[in-house]
Amino acid sequence: MDDSSSFDVVAAEPLDDIMQKIAEHKGCGTSSDGGKASCGSSDGPDDMAPEIWEKVKNHPCYSEEAHHHYARMHVAVAPACNIQCNYCNRKYDCANESRPGVVSEKLTPEQASKKVLAVASTIPQMTVLGIAGPGDPLANPAKTFKTFELISQTAPDIKLCLSTNGLALPDHVDTIAKYNVDHVTITINMVDPEVGAQIYPWIFWNHKRVEGIEAARILTERQMKGLEMLTERGILCKVNSVMIPGINDKHLVEVNKAVKSRGAFLHNIMPLISAPEHGTVFGLNGQRGPSAQELKALQDACEGEMNMMRHCRQCRADAVGLLGEDRSAEFTTDKIMEMEVSYDLESRQAYQNAVEQERLAKVAAKKAEMETLAQEDASDLKILVAVATKGSGRINEHFGHANEFQVYELSSSEGAKFVGHRRVDLYCQGGYGEEDALETVIRAINDCTAVFVAKIGHCPKDTLSAAGIEPIDQYAYEFIEQSAIAYFKDYLARVKSGEIVHVARGDADIRQGAFIEA
């Protein structure tokens, strides 16, 4: 983060030093009134072709703006996979963890179709159905395309997506187009086979196992060919890349250039998840994931003409709900088979129209606040702030109930820009604050100057302040971006007057394995 400015700047303290200083706050309880928590692009219709806007405006993965309002679901109909990745272990499943490739139950296409209708009838803002595993959808083409066929017949308003490693992609592009699957995600971690050989021990290709550099060479050639074939047909492509420090972190800049030149719409660089308990090769050999600032620096370096996705939650292959939440437990196979499902397209559309009005109000509020910021003295100073939210683009979550904080970068040039999210352990448990959890929260948002919440108890407020993070509850239930810009104007004024000194913040932790519920 660029902290250069015309103001005096104080260097950041190491994170461990800060944690040591606040340790004296351990042991204090709190009342339960503390409360229970650029996809890509946030561009609007004025910034892209109308046909592209129609594809992304209510797609929570392809639009950062939409992910505040619209939900998605994955159905686990594709168990087999044709490659082995050193960061993947599909055998491990914990209901409280969210990682790609993890599911609690596998479905037939018929079960998946009924589940989609049940979810869409219950969650009217659910607009997207994706198939992302638990293996590779195109290693299971019959089940994948049968599912798409059934859903397109009964729920034609739902967008269809798939996520693939790309090995079999060139063989299925025509079928993908036939079923109007117009959003495809390809996981591409390298374009150099020598790098790839450190990530993929083998692929299954032409009825045999291929290993090492030869396997990686075949994989990258098939991925690039498939990407070109999709973009030639006007199918939107998102590229996922896993950032693995010391292996492909610097190389991902080259990957970004390669996929951009082939027409990819969006690049999503995600942190490696490598906790030992997941049993992956990287987890067991001690390969670390990136820190929050390492990830942000790489995303910033790759940001240019191509949109960067920063709101990915690395979802399970059976996730349901808004990004950052998972309601899959409400829709198990046993429950959906007992449900009387009535798919009311008219009611869904009416609900989504109401969501759109809320969204337009949010955009207008941000624009109005941004105009007032432009009238202030320009500054090069940038800060990060964390926000507790339950969705709809509002500051509407209590600090103690947040299991995730969204992070915005504030600047005079761009106002409030979404740059990521941080998973945390729940602070408020059983009506009392859990001090060990509070430490994880501070580690997760240590690079932030302030945290915006709907409500917060006295004890965590004091502890956050001691760590140099300003707790802000004066904008409760207001729009996030409008409030953040208003805060930033006040912050700049306080720095300029000498009331406060701007402090360059340090780094922050990324939680290993995305926690999804208490």
TrEMBL record:
Keywords: 4Fe-4S, Iron, Iron-sulfur, Lyase, Metal-binding, Nitrogen fixation, S-adenosyl-L-methionine. Residues 67-316 form the Radical SAM core domain. InterPro entries: Aldolase_TIM, Di-Nase_FeMo-co_biosynth, DiNase_FeMo-co_biosyn_sf, MoaA_NifB_PqqE_Fe-S-bd_CS, Nase_CF_NifB, NifB_C, rSAM, rSAM_sf. Its cofactor is [4Fe-4S] cluster. It comes from the Bacteria. The keyword Coiled coil does not apply. It holds the Pfam family Nitro_FeMo-Co. Pathway: Cofactor biosynthesis; Fe-Mo cofactor biosynthesis. Residues 26-45 are annotated as: Disordered. GO terms for molecular function: 4 iron, 4 sulfur cluster binding; lyase activity; metal ion binding. The keyword Iron-sulfur applies. Belongs to the radical SAM superfamily. NifB family. Involved in the biosynthesis of the iron-molybdenum cofactor (FeMo-co or M-cluster) found in the dinitrogenase enzyme of the nitrogenase complex in nitrogen-fixing microorganisms. NifB catalyzes the crucial step of radical SAM-dependent carbide insertion that occurs concomitant with the insertion of a 9th sulfur and the rearrangement/coupling of two [4Fe-4S] clusters into a [8Fe-9S-C] cluster, the precursor to the M-cluster. This is FeMo cofactor biosynthesis protein NifB. It comes from Methylocystis heyeri. The lineage of its organism: Bacteria, Pseudomonadati, Pseudomonadota, Alphaproteobacteria, Hyphomicrobiales.
